[in-house]
What does this fold into?
Amino acid sequence: MISSDVVVIGGGVVGTAITYYLAVRGLAPTLIERHDLASGTSGACGGSITMQTKRAGPVLGCAIQSQDLYRALGDELGHDLEYQEQGSLVVAETDDELEYLTALVAAQAVAGLHLDWLDGPAARAWGDLGRSVQGASFCPTDAEVNPLRVVFAFGEAARRHGGRILTHTRVTGIRADRDGVAGVQTDRGDFAARTIVNAAGVWSSMIGQMVGVDVPVRPRRGVVVVTEPAPFSVRGTLFSAKYLISKRHPVGGSTANDGNSTFTGGLVLSEAVAGNLLVGSSREFAEYDVGAPVDVIDFIVREAVRIIPAIAGVRMIRAYAGLRPLSGDGLPIIGNVPRLPGLVLATGHEGDGVALAPWTGKAVADLIVSGAPSEELAPFDPRRFAEAV
Amino acid sequence: MIAVDVLIVGAGPAGLSAAIEAADAGADVLVLDENERVGGQIYRQLPPEITASTSLGDQTKARSLFQAVESRRNIKVLCRTTAWGTRGPTTLAISTDDRVDDVNGRCLIVCTGAYDRPVPFPGWTLPGVISAGAALTLLKGQRILPGRNVLLVGAGPIQLVLATYLVQGGAHLAGVLEASTRWALYRRFPRLLGQWALLREGVEYLVGLRRAGVRVRYGHTILRAEGEDRVRQAVVCRVDEQWKPVPGSEKALEVDAVICGFGFVPATELTALLGCDHQYSPWTGGWIAKHNRNMETSVPNVWVAGETTGVAGAVVAAEEGRLAGIAAAHRLGYLSESAAEVRSRKPRRRLAGLYRFRRAIDEVYRPREGLLDLLTPDTVVCRCEDVTARGVSDALVNGARRTAEVKTRTRAGMGPCQGRMCATSLAAMVGRYCATSAEEAGQSRVRPPIKPVPLSAFRTR
It folds into this structure.
């Protein structure tokens, strides 16, 4: 049996970040991933690091810290993460959306985040936007990153600092004894560890079930359409207020069989470094199905063509779907599981995994090294789902 | 939403034959095709604005097929139409003339054909190096010669057809290189006997070429194509039984075009999207949709016919199309059980003989592992995203174990062609590195759009 200080389950952006920060602190972590790194949610998401779309409150505060880490992360890890601060724009098309956006600007100002307000003409001039756009808020410091590069860079750097990364290894069970967790069983042997981090994202509930811990996280699917490289360029990330509203007021908990649309969404548009446009996105409960339904693609594309009419001149070439780990209350779940000493949860980031990964990795490493959760982690404490975990 | 009895995707020999059978039984039929005119790849027609004094190859079969379709009022054809997604078990999302629409068929017959098996070698992305399918499109659809001094490389009977057309068109052939050995063909010759019409066709091509001074060189292939702005020279070599280049046998040829025809890969994106069960069949080109003797897939009311069920040529495609058309008409109540059985007898009997013939041909020409030895580290494997063989190797060394994981690490297969130009090579490379089969390397997940769609088609009118 191989023994480690810490076993981290899940090779996405959160798991690799935790492994990296643990290795940097001199621990000997082992990351176990069922497939390859970035083969789940982190390999099928956008790469926006936007502050203005975060709820004012604990998430925004952590996101700001996380972005600070990102600014130096490429140099620290020795990899180009394609991090760029090009800003983000949220457009409103209806009176309700204008009202929502005005409130957002005010709330973020209170939280210390300044947003520029653009009226209709100014907003439309920002990127040759459609007539339906009535106003927008702009955050100049919002950024984008290449999530795949982040995951592989964290993984590589973790290895360099003494961490072990085991891909294509399936966790089949978690051993526990009187003192708490004792190790992980896999299809490639057993690993002894007194600390186990469940960073399995949308699969974290399955890992939890192995030791009778109910992790209240379920997959919520987002679809993104990819175009060929466009002849025009898009700075930063463009959101529709409709998207933000849909994200926060989830509907459609039912299955897709009732004939009505079961998804919500709006526009999230950015340009990949290669020039392709990434056009999203939807939110839908579809279990673990990573298909991209035609009705969702149809909806997303119509949103895009209305808001940014020039996009009609390009072709879509593919679509992908990612499962976002949504927790019971929409906030990440990060911290110790009191019932089972040594088990740490770091999951439930939904669409904020990439943005929050450096901060999460650092916070979890601190928690494990110090043994006691910091004040900062309080809002994300698993104990808020008392009856569950 | 358009609704019909029988919806057919692909207007080649399979699709048109299916349409005729279903229509004759009384069904309303709609045939979709991406091209300007019906015919598919093998019976590709000139566009109406181009006329030619001579025809390439025997047109009688094609013409009678087109006439049969035109004369039936219950067959409608929608050209310039792409089926890019599915909305239900037999409902397709299509784009046509800058609009999107949905089409439902109570029965659906998928005859999407095949595409060229891409074989990367140094210089294969140079202008002037094209695939056999592209050469056929140029010759048949535009009457354009790909070059004046052309080298044909690859495997299989398609080479003879192309060589004949090129000679007819006035091109000089710098060579016709068949990777299979002569022995591989002769050894299976007894199994080819019986299909006299097909054999005669083959012999006629060979005799015609011999008369024109063209000889097929067996056991040879291309090693690399060279040139600054376009291909100027090809280095060719002998290959062994596994198509592995024989060191020291290299020879340079002056050329201005290279046509590569290493067989075809069935186009299964649509059947994959429809949720049909597939199986890996290296003999017939790769993944194919499983089907029963009536050509119905694992998804009820969805049939397949032609090259998409395994590459076997126009004659097989037409017979399979007939079976599918008859079965669909029976499903809809236009034919009784016994009437369908009677009509199916002849195609079924013909297919039995054709499949035997085809199996022997496939054994001779199926792609061999040595093709992978043409790759050098700098050879581009995914031409959409410019991913080289080195890039793929690095991904494998760094831990990727399946084609999907190579895709994530390198972007190979993420471009406009959606892997049609690299998936088979990637699967072979993963298979070799991980010592697994291309089958285990895994099929990439298929999602809509399976073909590029202009976003203008989604504008609200």
